[in-house]
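If I may wish for something, please sit down with the protein I am sending here and say whether tokens and residues agree:
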Amino acid sequence: MAENPLELASLGATAAPLTFEQPLTERMRTFLRLDFLYGQAVYHNEMATQWGSRAAVASLLDILSISTRGDMRPEVLKELERHITALGDYRARPGVDDARLRAVVANLVRLRGELAATGTGYLQSLKESEFLSAIKHRSAIPGGTCEFDLPDYYFWLNRPTELRAQAFGAWLALLRPLCDAIAELLWLTRQNGRSREELARGGTFNITFDRDAPIQLLRIALPAGSNLYPEISGSHYRCSVRFLSWNGLDGRSTQAEGDVPFTLTCCS
């Protein structure tokens, strides 16, 4: 069913702008995925239902898969160190809120210490868990985690809510130092962004970045009721943006016909 134009206009007047993010480096892409999955795991675990536990475990297994594919721990520690050093250089600059700066640096130092203390084998117990390995193996099959496929998983899902939450909390605690550090790094990256108003003529816009100041993350904000979304392609050297009009679930999106004003934020 087509959207009501009056409802869209009302939505645009009251809702916050809709922000789309595009990672421009492989590291940033991985950070965003891990942060998304961690938030999803925490949310579903708090639902306190069997279906919530299933979804939480699925997110946990995805986090484990990404984290073990490449060693993320040294990458995150390196980024924490880079930001600590960069923020330390700001102390000598005039007009800097020294108390705020010290608080941010202290938080980064704390996160670095917690992640460093986990040791290189911090995920070993999750990797070696036969219970989780069986679920991961069966999850590759559509509907493969039914009760007749994994009776032990079905038994665990029917345990009291408190016991399920306790077990999942123990698993999540092993990932928390990594994911908390990533969340803080993403916050800093977004805070470092410089925003400007731009106009995509005919619905298209091209961006060329300074090679001496690499950009890690691109953010594009549109009014919530604009009925548009961006399609972004490119790299940390240049990007092209095409704005598409949403034509409902049964219609195919088409390129915006007119000029599109939007807010562009480049985050280093």
